[in-house]
Every structure is written in C-alpha cells, then in structure tokens.
C-alpha cells in the first residue's frame, strides 16, 4: 500500500503485477467495495491492541489521543468533500486517532479508533459515531466509553491528551463518568491546602523547597536529560464555560479533586529544557508522580506514528483517492504497516535486532552517529525486503541465470 513517491503518488507497484495501472485499479476496486467497511478494517488492529494488553504487566494501558490535519491543497480539485478547517484557504480533512500504548514500557500497540471528518460526513470506526456538527473534542467521550466497555482490553485505560483538551467542563464530565485521564494544562487557579493559588505558584514552591525528585532519564532533541517530578493535590472549583443554545454561558460545576503533577526535563548543566503541568484523576496509590510523568512522555508515540503515516513513510497527504472514506480505508491498511514497524523498533530480541540490521542495509539509508535505526528507514527497508521475496518466489531464474542475463545485456551495450 506504499505510495511510490511524492511526484508519482500512485500505489507502489508489486513485482508480481506487470502494469502499474493494474495496481491502481485493484486498489480502487478494494476501497470502493461496500463490504470493506472501516469497522472490519479496524478489527485486526484492535486484536493487536488486545493481544498487547495481555502481555503487559501494568494495571493500566494508555490511550493517547491526538488530532492532525490532512492537507490536500496540492490536488484539492480531485477531492469533492474537503473540509474548510480554519480560514478560507485552509482545506483538508480532520483526523482524530486514539493510539494504544503500553503503560510500563511505552511500546506502541495499535490504533484503536479513528474519526475522519470531511465536509459531508464523519467517517468513524466507532460503533456509535459522534455527530458531524460537534467539536472534535466531543469525539473523545465516544472513544472513552468504548475503551472501557467495548474493546476488552483487560487493563484499565488512562486517556492521555495534550493541552488542546484543557477544558474544565470536559474534565468534570469525564470524571463524573468514571474515565481516568491525564491532560496537560495551562496555568489556572486552583484550591490547594485551603488557599487559592495558581498552578505556576505551586510549581515555584516545589522548586524553592527542593521537592522535585529525579524520575529517570528521558530523550530531548536526541540528547539524554534528567526527568524530575513534583506533585500537589488540588481542587478545581471555578465555573466553566459552555455554549448553550448558541450562547456562551458560565456554569458553576461541582468541585473535583485532582492530582497536579509537575514534570521538567533538566540537562547536564542544570538548565530546564522542557516542562509540563499535568492534571490527572488516577489515584496516587496506584501510580505515583514518576509514573504519571512517564506516561505523558509516552504520548509522543502518537506523534511519531503520524510521522510514519505522513511525511516520513507512507506519504498520506499525497494519496490520490477522491473521497474521505477511501482515504480512511487506505489509512487503516497503512496503519498495519506502521504498527509492525513500531513494534519491531521496540523489540530487544536477538532475532529482531538481526532483522532490523538487515532492513537498514536494504533501505540504503544513512544513520546519524550512534543511531542504529529509525522507523522510516525500517519501513523503507521492509518494502525492499518484501519485493525481493516476491520476485524470488515469482521468477524461475536462478541467481546464476540472472547474472548471465545482466552480463549478456551489458556486453551488447558495450559492443555497440
């Protein structure tokens, strides 16, 4: 299902197909088939996710949520259902993904849910898809409910979401429904130990009283840094905003008690190179601040997953399918290749290490000093490996006959 190149974005032609048009036609028929539904294509991925949960030692499993825009401006005239996202010239599709990640190791297990919003419909793998008219944050509750009751994960899901979901009203609702969450937030006023303070003030107090503790190493821009964490129990008590009948109103909601976990990354010189403020309702006796901070660090797995799908792997934004539904179907097929690569990256078995080295050699990619492999290089090498196997199985020529064929052709060229 690989796109050939950005300048030639049709499907990569397998070696057992003589004409490139045949590959494109086969793909078109498959994606056009009504019996090929998003739910059926998602099921193998969910099975991978469930199998991964069975092998985990943690009580929890992480569900990382994120959104990304699929930009098709370079060939927008071929797609009739593109959506205006922000301004007039900002058109494309809005993709929501829920990625299952191991809580103890950060290994990517599988995408478990997608929603692709177009100008005409919201194509979803959910049993009860969210409304097209709703904000994309409204899609979270549908996925949270299915994660708890429909995916048979055998682990308690914790929903990890970036700052875009920093909404007091939504946190109140998720908490009331029993969903566990971990959300990055901006500075806000809370109640702590009987006083009204800003989260930034609590952060400063932890720093000045030396209450940050080391919580292991992390990578920041390719360099190892020290992760440090601090924690306070806070109460969110202020009103939240909600749009009712088209009018924005202030709602006095029920106070909720959460854990504020402060995480920072410190380099060898003692400089803070990154820091986050997190709010979670995961009980402290089941996951300490160090573990919670590590969970948010693992959220980056969904960014690297998007990277494989888009700019550094499968060239998602150059696909020529003419509808959002066809794009969504092909995306789920491509996701299977991405999951395979991510799990191959994470494995430390002797067989996996040997196979990774084999794929890197086939890819022809150069690695930075000290870097043994990358996801995009493994993906590129895997396609070479599969094509090579297909050709060797399809051809009747021996290795010596192939060499003779080459020598005979080159001899004629040199003679001319």
Short description:
This protein has 2 domains: 42-316, Transposase Inhibitor Protein From Tn5, Chain A, domain 1 (Alpha-Beta Complex), CATH 3.90.350; 350-415, no CATH class.
Q: Explain this structure to me?
A:
- The structure is a single chain.
- The protein contains eleven helices and 15 strands.
- It is an alpha+beta fold.
- Strand 6, helix 4 and strand 7 form a beta-alpha-beta unit.
- Helix 2 (38-54) packs parallel to helix 8 and helix 9 (350-363) crosses helix 10 (375-394).
Which characteristics define this entry?
Transposase Inhibitor Protein From Tn5, Chain A, domain 1, 2 domains, alpha+beta, IS4 family transposase ISRba2, 11 helices, Transposase_11, 416 residues, RNaseH-like_sf
**SSE string, helix = H, strand = E?**
HHEEEEEHEHEEEHEEEEEEHHHHHH
- Enumerate the spans where pLDDT stays under 50 for 5 or more consecutive residues: none
Average pLDDT figure: 89
Q: How many whole angstroms does the radius of gyration measure?
A: 25 Å
CATH superfamily of the largest domain: Transposase Inhibitor Protein From Tn5, Chain A, domain 1
Shape: globular
Highest CATH level, the class of the largest domain: Alpha Beta
How many helices? The count is 11
Question: Which structural class should the secondary elements be placed in?
Answer: alpha+beta
Q: How many angstroms does the end-to-end distance come to?
A: 41 Å
CATH architecture of the largest domain: Alpha-Beta Complex
Counting structural domains, the number is: 2
- Strand proportion, as a percent range, falls in 25-35%
Number of strands: 15
User: Percent of residues in helical segments?
Assistant: 25-40%
CATH fold naming of the largest domain: Transposase Inhibitor Protein From Tn5, Chain A, domain 1
What's the main sheet like?
Answer: 11 strands, mixed
């Amino acid at each position: 299902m690989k796109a050939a190149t950005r300048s030639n974005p049709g499907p990569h032609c397998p070696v057992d197909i003589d004409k490139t048009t045949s590959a494109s036609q086969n793909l078109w028929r498959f994606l056009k088939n009504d019996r090929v539904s998003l739910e059926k294509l998602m099921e193998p991925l969910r099975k991978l996710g469930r199998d991964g949960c069975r092998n985990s030692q943690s009580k929890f499993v992480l569900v990382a949520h994120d959104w990304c825009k699929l930009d098709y401006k370079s060939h927008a005239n071929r797609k009739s259902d593109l959506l205006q996202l922000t301004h007039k010239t900002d058109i494309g599709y809005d993709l929501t993904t829920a990625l299952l990640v191991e809580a103890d190791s950060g290994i990517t297990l599988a995408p478990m849910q997608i929603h692709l919003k177009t100008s005409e419909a919201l194509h979803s793998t959910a049993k009860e898809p969210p409304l097209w008219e709703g904000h994309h944050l409204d899609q979270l509750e549908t996925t949270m409910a299915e994660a708890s009751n429909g995916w048979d994960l055998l682990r308690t899901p914790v929903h990890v979401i970036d700052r875009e979901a920093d909404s007091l009203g939504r946190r109140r609702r998720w908490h009331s429904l029993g969903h566990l969450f971990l959300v990055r937030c901006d500075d806000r006023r809370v109640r702590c130990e009987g006083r009204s303070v800003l989260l930034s003030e609590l952060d400063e107090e932890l720093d000045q009283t030396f209450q940050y503790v080391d919580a292991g190493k992390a990578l920041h821009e390719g360099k190892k840094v020290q992760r440090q964490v601090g924690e306070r129990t806070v109460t969110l008590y202020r009103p939240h905003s909600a749009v009712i009948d088209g009018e924005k109103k202030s709602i006095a909601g029920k106070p909720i008690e959460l854990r504020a976990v402060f995480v920072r990354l410190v380099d060898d010189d003692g400089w803070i190179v990154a820091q986050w403020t997190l709010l979670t309702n995961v009980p402290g006796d089941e996951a300490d601040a160090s573990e919670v901070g590590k969970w948010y660090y693992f959220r980056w797995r969904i960014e690297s997953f998007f990277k494989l799908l888009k700019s550094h792997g499968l060239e998602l934004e150059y696909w020529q399918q003419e509808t959002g539904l066809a794009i969504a179907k092909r995306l789920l097929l491509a996701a299977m290749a991405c999951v395979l690569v991510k799990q191959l990256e994470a494995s430390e078995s002797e067989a996996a290490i040997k196979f990774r080295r084999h794929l890197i050699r086939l890819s022809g990619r150069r690695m930075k000093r000290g870097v043994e492999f990358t996801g995009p290089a493994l993906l590129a090498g895997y396609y070479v490996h599969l094509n090579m196997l297909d050709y060797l199985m399809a051809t009747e020529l021996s290795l010596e006959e192939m060499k003779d064929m080459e020598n005979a052709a080159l001899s004629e060229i040199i003679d001319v």
